[in-house]
Amino acid sequence: MVVLEVMKELPLTLIMRPFDFDTLSTSVHRYTRIEQVREAALPALAIVLCALVPVLALDRLHGRPRQ
Length: 67
Prior knowledge:
By secondary structure, the protein is mainly alpha-helical. Helix content is 75%, strand content 0%.
């Protein structure tokens, strides 16, 4: 769950990142700020897909009762 929160935490990333280092969140922010939605779509989709993997893994580990 920490991975999900850290990956999408934009304000903290903007404050603490080194110079000339972009993460997916900062790329999406930069492109949407200048209204280039097409360029922002791929990094935003990557964030969603990266967040989906741990969620699915946790769901599988938790397991559902079998009937």
